[in-house]
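[Meeting: bench + compute handoff]

Bench side (C.D.) handed over the final construct sequence. Compute side (W.E.) agreed to return the predicted structure before the next meeting so the bench team could plan truncations. Sequence as handed over:
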Amino acid sequence: MSLRHWPDAERPRERLLAQGAEALSDAELLALLLGTGPRGSNAVAHAKALLAQCGGLRGLLDRPPQALLRLPGLGPARAGALCAALALGRRHLEAGLSRGAVLDSPALAGEYFARWLRAAPRERFGVLFLDNRHRLLAAEVLFEGGLDQAAVHPRVVAKRAIELNAAAVLLGHNHPSGMAEPSAADRRLTQQLKEALALVEVRLLDHFVVGDGPPVSMAGRGWV
């Protein structure tokens, strides 16, 4: 049945406007971007089929534009709409944490790292460089690796902190497997980074590991 024949209280757009995006499922939000489904299917059914084929929202939206075009029912207009929505989300995030923003809350920093790094298909290591009042100087991905590991060099992090005249840093990296639990190697690296930064009088405030769930704060575990 076409969505226009659904009761008003069940239509995704009307529910979004009345209750907010949190009230909608991934398939319903995706359906709003798709607009319509292929012949014989509505947008919600089409969205559910795409999510099932791709293994969920992340499996769908992590695909590059040309891969989206190969999915059933996604022509240039719909694939372009999905890519544009992702780009707007990233730019909104960047705008919300511009130079000079104060990062004095572990929850805020963890949320930023999660949104910044979670969707990356390969491991990325990002650094937030802060001044002595915890105001943001720069946010940079310094290392990018394979599917399960990125080579991180403490001297490079320390050198960049000196160049930016940073007083403190927040670190974060993603686990593309989706498992956010820090490994023994993550803990060793954190200690090495802490020691290297201390030599140039830069404080390591926290190191977040990002997976599918909430990011794990190493400072919260007492490992920083």
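W.E. noted at the follow-up: The mean pLDDT is 87. C.D. will use this when planning the next construct.
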